[in-house]
Automatic annotation (TrEMBL):
Residues of the full protein shown: 245 to 613 of 613
Protein purpose: Catalyzes the first step in hexosamine metabolism, converting fructose-6P into glucosamine-6P using glutamine as a nitrogen source.
Protein name: Glutamine--fructose-6-phosphate aminotransferase [isomerizing]
Native organism taxonomy: Bacteria, Pseudomonadati, Bacteroidota, Cytophagia, Cytophagales
Species per Swiss-Prot/TrEMBL record: Belliella calami
Its EC number(s): 2.6.1.16
Chief location: cytoplasm
Amino acid sequence: EAIEKGGYEHFMLKEINEQPRSIADCMRGRLDAKNGRLILGGLRDYMNKFQNADRIIITACGTSWHAGLVAEYLFEEFARIPVEVEYASEFRYRNPVISEKDFVIAISQSGETADTLAAIELAKSKGATIFGVCNVVGSSIARATHAGCYTHAGPEIGVASTKAFTAQISVLTMMALMLGYQRGTLTESKYVQLLNELEGIPGKVEKALKMNSNVEKIAEIYKDSRNFLYLGRGYNFPVALEGALKLKEISYIHAEGYPAAEMKHGPIALIDEEMPVVFIATKDTSYEKVVSNIQEVKARKGKIIAVVTEGDTVVRGMADHVLEIPDTAEAFVPLLSVIPLQQLSYHIAVMRGCNVDQPRNLAKSVTVE
Ligand code: G6P
């Protein structure tokens, strides 16, 4: 086992640090930015039909569902097709309206989650076309779908998903870009520009990982907190949910993720000097609005930990702690902003003496409903 951990103390830390490589592996042979080419071989036979989809329904559980939420923003922005993101466990039991012009994308690291598999069977019986985004080759979900793309992140052992999440987002990003280009909702120049930016993401993840020692110091300060709030908007809203889930899963600290603007409809009542609030406040279209949310927390004496874009000065002047990530296209930010949140949950869990790789009550794959 020590050899499998490659010198790391836990699989989770190894998997967090593997992300520059796992994302590159996921894009290898598919993305060729220099020549403006993006090919997802697994979808080849279905691309014409996919272009004319009425609607995309994404179904998944847990962390994979969060990747699905990021994909909702991606597909709607680039391909202009309406998207719904469904918990598989809800979708399968509510007699959903599905037609033959619907495309269902099922996301699953293990490819064995019972609820996701059942949601696929239901959608299939109503005539929809089903794509799979799985990590485990030959898994039940990969076999049950019409077509799909593997994430090629390599085996993920830690129960809390990290590298599978960023690989899922990488695949879904490539799908959305390819679809947008083919539909003409994405211009050639924008497409090529985004392909180039995407190719540079593994290098930027490498840079984001360097915040680790700063993250560790923050973990030391807040490791005994009883609650955490995670806030983000737009592409960073699903990242807030994922950051909170990571902390809950492995450190057993209660954490909630919320869209920052919804804070005033409830969570703001919880804020006092005991409450750490993690803001994802990168330079994007909702930046100014997030800054005013930070002010609201500060006015109530909440402790502010902010993930910001390199060089940010405004949030730095307000927050108790900042963690910098490199600048990138707004749509690709989740691949970077989730990194310090993974590290934060990891360090807090280690400091609290928790079993990081095998947290209590959780399983790597849930094959029962
Ligand atoms: C379990 C795991 C999570 C995972 C979820 C969905 O709850 O502990 O890490 O996100 O199942 O699993 P899947 O394999 O379908 O992505």
